[in-house]
Design brief:
The protein has 5 helices and 2 strands; from the N terminus they run H-H-E-H-H-H-E. The protein starts with a helix and ends in a 5-residue tail after the last strand. A two-stranded parallel sheet has the order 1-2. 45% of the residues lie in helices and 3% in strands. With 129 residues, it is mainly alpha-helical. It is elongated.
Length: 129
């Protein structure tokens, strides 16, 4: 029995299609599962913190700056506060009274919500017991 070129091409395409289809359905069975890595901590290994430990209230009080009593040099240690802004803070509290809340520092011209977000963790308005 002799087949034509067209019949041979059709049979070849059918064989390729069947091979592709079989590979498609069988690939899920032959794929490896997810890779699992297990680690052990050595007892002599130093502790590594991903996040810095939260300070105790006493430590936090030492690092906080009271914006109602701080001088220019102390205020300049705050992030984003230069000499001019520190003088503006002092002028504002002398003219309009002390700040009641740390958020009141936005009364100072040039200190907005964005600057406040960087300062709020470092400032207080009164001595806490």
């Amino acid at each position: 029995m002799k087949i034509s070129k067209w019949e041979f091409a059709i049979l070849l395409l059918l064989a390729a299609f069947l091979a592709f289809t079989a590979g498609w359905f069988l690939r899920e069975r032959s794929m490896p599962g997810p890779l699992v890595v297990e680690t052990q901590r050595r007892p002599d290994a130093p502790e590594v913190w991903l996040d810095p430990p939260t300070p105790t209230p006493a430590e936090k009080q030492e690092t906080m700056i009271n914006i109602n009593t701080a001088d220019v040099e102390t205020l300049m240690t705050l992030p984003g506060i230069g000499e001019k802004r520190a003088r503006d803070i002092i002028t504002e509290r002398e003219e309009n009274g002390p700040f009641r809340f740390p958020e009141d520092i936005t009364r100072v011209s040039g200190i907005g919500e964005e600057t406040l977000a960087g300062l709020i963790d470092y400032i207080i308005t009164e001595d806490e017991p």
